[in-house]
Amino acid sequence: MTRGGAVRSLIRRFAVLALLLAATAVFALPFLWSLSISFQLPGDVFGWPIEFIPAPFTLDNYRRLWTEIPFGRWLLNSAAVAVAVTLANLFFDALAGYAFARLRFPGRNLLFVLLLATLMVPAHVTLVPKFMLLNALDLVNTYTALIAPATVQVVGIFLMKQFFESIPGQLEEAARIDGCNRFQVFWRVVLPASRPALAALAIYTFQGNWNEFLWPLVATTSSDRFTLPVGLAMFRYEFRVEWTLLMAGAVLFALPTLIIFLVFQRLFVQGIATSGLKE
User: Fold this and answer.
1) HSE, side-chain direction, 13 A CA sphere, residue 268
2) Whole-angstrom Cα distance, residue 269 to residue 200?
3) What is each CA distance from 97 to 94, 113, 164, 278, in whole angstroms?
4) b (16+ CB within 10 A) / e for 35-71
5) What Rg do the C-alpha atoms of the chain give, in angstroms?
């Protein structure tokens, strides 16, 4: 490479690095500001200039979360609902995806196309019918109302189907020769080989249900059934907003999904990258 080409390559690298740093700042600054507000006194929120290191520094907002409001109950509700929905999706989505990938039955392709077509229906359209159904079953303001409508997702079925089609069929044939029935092949051979896709589905499902606001707002009527997003929204009153409490709750609310993604990032990226491959 000539000296001029080396210089141009170096300039391009610095330009790309500068763009990446700028993008990182754009996404990181709101989170850092929220973190700063969570350690400020209520009267310092709108102070100017903005101070990312608050003075005075206080932990009182986090203390108030645990002592003055049922934050622990909302946290437990969110965790229970998100974990239950995630486990249900891991099983049912994988089971349905395996059926579409490996079983041959009349109308399989048509049924799969119809399932994909439901993705074009906005979630708001089904909001009222779901509520009316649960209300008729006397399930409003219960954990069942929060969990049951989300136990299966078409996106999860599609993801698992695509991944299963990339698994060599010889593995399943060997298991069948050893005497395994169809479900045993699925449970003992296919699922263990699908850990990247399962990890991607688990992260996607957990994060989606952990952040869900609209459906818990509609399906719950008492504070002991609120999830964290609904509970945090209660800090916005008619004439004022408890910004310091709201930001302290938002910081704690964001930690679980951040930790889960960092721990399982490699499996998540691998699952997404290989879900479109076929044998």
Assistant:
1) 14
2) 7
3) 5, 13, 7, 14
4) bbbbbbeeebeeeeeeeeebeeeeeebbebbeeebeb
5) 24
CA distance 270 to 273: 5
Query: What is the residue extent of each domain of the chain?
Result: 70-274
Band (pLDDT 50/70/90 cuts) for residue 5 is low
pTM, two decimals, is: 0.82
Residues in the chain: 279
Return the SS3 of 57. coil
Q: What is the pLDDT of residue 160?
A: 93
Letter string b/e over residues 232-241, b meaning 16 or more CB atoms within 10 A of that residue's CB: beebeeeeee
Tokens of 27: 């996404």
Report how far Cα 257 is from the mean position of its chain's Cα atoms.
7
Task: Please determine, for residue 176, whether its predicted confidence score (pLDDT) is greater than 60.
Answer: yes
Tell me, rounded to whole angstroms, the distance of Cα 187 from its chain centroid. Answer: 25
CATH class of 70-274: mainly alpha
State phi, psi for 253 to the nearest 5 degrees. Answer: -65, -35
